[in-house]
Design a protein that fits this description.
heterodimer, A: 499 residues, eight-stranded mixed beta sheet, 45% helix, B: 77 residues, mainly beta, four-stranded antiparallel beta sheet, three-stranded mixed beta sheet, 43% strand
Chain lengths: 499, 77
Amino acid sequence: MLDVKGGLKLLFILMVGICGGCAHYPDNPPLSAISPSTGYRYSVVRQQPMRDKPFVILALSGGGTRAAAFSFGLMEELAQVEYVTQEGAKRRLIEDVEIVSSVSGGSFTAAYYALFPESFFNDFPQQFLYRNIQRELFLQMFNPYNWFRLASPDFSRIDMADQYYNKTIFKEKTFAYLLEKPRGRVPFLVLNATNISTNHRFEFTQDQFDLLCSDMNGITVSRAVAASSDFPVAFTPLTLNNYKENCGALPEWIGPALVKESNPKRRYLEAAAAQSYRDRDRRFVHLLDGGLSDNLGLRGPFQAVTTTDSWSILQWANWERLGRLMVIEANAKTTKQRTWDASSKPPGLSTVLDVITSGPMDDVSLDSIESTDGHFKQMKQLSRTVDSCNSHFADNCPNVRKIYNPITTDFTFAELTFDDIPDLRLRRCLQELPTSFSLPSETVDLLRTTAGYLLMNSDEFVDGMKRLDPSWKPRGIIIDEELIDQVCGRGSEADSGGH
Amino acid sequence: MEFFQCPCPKRGNVILDGNDQGPNKDDEGQLLPKKCNAGLHTIALRCSDGKQCSPQFVKVEIKDTDPISPMEVSFQC
């Protein structure tokens, strides 16, 4: 016979069990009809670009708290970059940020800025950067209520992490909240995850959710950040419902792009991946960390700049509203020094796993950097060719009509990476940092300062700023030696160079 | 990057795969080449005075162009 105490205990366990069994991930709501003028889209969130204003895109890479702090440092520095407009007024460059595209760790910074721009610089460090998120997530596992919830097939570790981010960091805000902000007030946020069925980038924009016939307004920002930072193995894939019926036809570019023989391979594959959301058997979408398809957050902007498919920036270049395009990449990638070649003994399992997860990712990232840089260089070269042609005509055939130059955009692409730190000790130290959701506060401080230092010492950024405002000068930033000592340890003199 | 332009006796807006890419020519009648990615596209011209342009749309593969010699996709309004 059970006594009263024992009975209550059993009842409690039963109740928790029943509740846990019912646990379900938050459903993304269905969409009744696609409307290009509503929902979380670039054209709804932002005003039409103005030719005389720089169009700034920030791409924030993955890399846990390391990436979040590095991107935060970039934004802190951008808030201090002031230039003189053609009308003679002073303006901060951060006000010209049109799009923030991010992955994984960088998504925490990007999302917090978009949600709370007024308090971002004061609150985000305490809310995220200096917090031991890893520990707090781990402690969630010891809550008996979560044991029961995790027993449900429709609730997993990533849903638990999502709930934690939602309550403690993102204050339960949804994408509808972002749409309530006055148009043009905050940048368009593009949080990137990876669809593991198609192995394609999956972005949290309404253009993407149109394919699922789902309404992003009811989705919490934390859910998008959780998907973007859903590191494989540590977390389970995040599930979305795919409704796919009756909300409207696929976007018009997809039809022509599906004609295989008339399209470049990548365009065809993008179209095939987009169309596959309407496949009969695809009732759900499973997502993992955005880093698996693009760890820089650069692919989305690159596609928008180079194509007229989906949401497009190239469209604004055709409207001649894109006078100056500036893309700044905060790349918090690490480069570990490997010592195993000094011995015949092969590296262990954890080292091999590290190589498997980071090696291909770094290679894809390098391709993305080179593609963007190469595209900008190619556009400049094409523009110069037209100008040279016209100047040749003017000198030798004055009666020939001038060729119209359709490239009227000034391009700047600046990548901030630890690889460009001249101080060997600091460079190696940051390149060896771990990827986790917890870093000592001194390390966070060092990453913040280093981002500002790299921006002010980026030749591409400085040149772009000088073309924008010839009187602009970069701020001199000295990284505190004591801070470097605290984080990296005291090095020999041979280790350091000037910074 | 590929380049195309839409000659037409009248002025109109170039519609590429359903998206407005701006006017086909400037106020002086100078054709304004448009930029797009390589591949098959659907192009239409929306006449400024509301008239229907002909053909209604053109499906064309745009490739191997340059800014000096953009592909021509002609319309009549």
